[in-house]
Amino acid sequence: MQTWIGGEGIFLLAGKLFGESWRTAGEFGGYPWTQWLSFLLFWLIEMAIIARGMEALRRFENWAAPFVIVGALALLVWITVKAGGLGPLLDQPSRLGWGGGFWKVFFPALMGMIGFWSTLSLNIPDFTRFGGSQRAQIRGQALGLPTTMTLFAFLSVLVTSGSEAVYGAPVWDPIQLAATMENPVGILFALLTVLVATLSVNIAANVVSPAYDLANLLPRFVTFRTGALITGVVGIVILPWRLISDPHVYIFTWLGVVGGLLGTVGGVLIADYWALRRTRLRLAELYRPGGAYWYAAGWNWRAVTALLVGGVLAVGGSYSTVDADGAKQGPFPADGLIPVLKPLADYGWAVGLTAAAVVYVGLSGVFGRGSGEAGEG
User: Fold this and answer.
1) Mind telling me which residue stretches traverse the membrane in this protein (predicted)?
2) Model pLDDT for residues 300-318, shown as the tens digit of each residue
């Protein structure tokens, strides 16, 4: 989906350069063939960067991060000037207020955003293992993630509010907002910023982890680069243009389900490492078949059971909303897959994490932790 967004940026950028004929080219599959070409080009750029390895990615991220921050601040300055000052950006009223209508939207959206970032919460060791010390990786995360995410959330709200003040309707998509600019230099800079931002986030968050997973799953046949290529192909096969076309499907279905399932994984990991083992592990045994953590033929049935229970509770109630005309928005039944679990669906990530952790600790307390109980350190 991020690659489709990046391709859209190239499509609009090229449209500003090549004129109306680029944007109105013959359609294929519901989109101009030039947009498909832009999508493919962005995909190839991503694959070219990741194919050069983690060191090339580190160098790219080092200059991309400050560039994107500068670009976002420049976008805020532009919309502020266009709106006539900060006042119009700050006085846009809430359409939902603080009543029941707000909370019905807030919690599913919150769970969707947590689900969006829960990938990095699980695969952050793919990056922190390159840190020089434990203090270095803690400092990097503490300074880098909360500060930048808070800043970008603040900038996003202000810029979107400013777009409503200027255009009469909120434009939340930065690509679409950049396309409204009249100055060619400003347009190019804004769209370049969006492209760099999408590249840096997408590769780090969505390509590195599965590439390592595939390489570790079949190390004799799959390298890190091959794993990245397989990931890129899978990213096309899931038809991202269809997933992102409807916000109901994207936020409430896709992110809700994925976030709920990833929450169960996080719950088991947290319970095992922090609650039961108190951060003490026999490191070498983690990599030995038949070793202390081999459990039952390589399977920890307590963890698998906790994943299943947490997963069912987290996503079993997934449902599709119904619009004013009675049309269902999404692939699930309006009453939920398992109707009795529907009230839990809006809190999928939190439900999955909590349920999996509780079940895993409970099973471990009753049946023991299995392998690796003694001598950990």
Assistant:
1) 33-51, 63-81, 101-122, 143-167, 187-209, 221-243, 249-271, 292-315, 347-367
2) 999 999 999 999 999 998 8
Find out whether 352 and 264 touch, Cβ atoms under 8 Å: yes
State how far the Cα of 166 lies from the Cα of 89, in Å rounded to an integer. 9
Nearest to 48 by CA among 194, 199, 216: 199
Tokens of 78: 């532009």
**Phi, psi torsion values for 331, nearest 5 degrees:** -90, -10
pLDDT digits (tens, 9 = 90+) for 326-368: 777 667 788 888 999 988 888 889 999 999 999 999 999 988 8
Could you tell me the maximum CA-CA distance found in the chain, to the nearest angstrom? 70
Helix (H, G, I), strand (E, B) or coil at 299: strand
Could you tell me how many residues make up the chain? 377
Handedness of CA 141, 142, 146, 149 (dihedral sign): negative
Closest CA to 210 of 189, 191, 186, 235: 235
Q: What is the pTM of this model?
A: 0.78
Domains of the chain are 1-240 (1.10.4160.10), 246-372 (no CATH)
Rounded CA-CA distance 244/172 in Å is 14
Residue 192 φ then ψ, to 5°:
-65, -40
